[in-house]
Design a protein that fits this description.
elongated; six-stranded antiparallel β-barrel; mainly beta; 179 residues; 4% helix
Length: 179
Amino acid sequence: MTHPVPAELMAVGVVAGTHGLRGDLKLRPLPTAAPALPHLHELYLQAPDGSLTLHRLLQCKPHKQHLLVRLAGLENLDAVQSLVGRTALARCQDLPALPPDRHYWHELDGMAVVDVRRGPLGRVAGLFATGAHEILTVEGELGEILIPFIPQFVLNTDLASGELRVDLPIGLVPGDDAL
């Protein structure tokens, strides 16, 4: 069972495991949060019951596809083993500004997606990363549509209006054979 995340917080990663004996956690960052994590000073960890605990970050450095995170007061292996699997969250106000063409997940979640030829396609319901780029999951009347989040397809992200304009190639949307 997943628990709701307060509006002022954004999920930034998942504790994937431990590393070494000093209490380092392997944090798997979520796609849009990876650039922000090294700049944060605090993280919330969400327990399986939904409760949140605030932790001060002592260290956050890259390690393969993860980040190694050390939390104040939890500086040995025994202290952190129970944290594996927890979701890491940060206050939205603490996230550093991104370049104009980049967005955090909480900004994209639920946005209306409108194609220049087909019109409304649905709403952004998910985001995941591949080796090449991020993929938006859009849910609408045509079912689930997976859209590579790249400039060739995503023309404009208007946060003020809550609309993401796309120009998708024939074949990416169910029912394209009618076009």
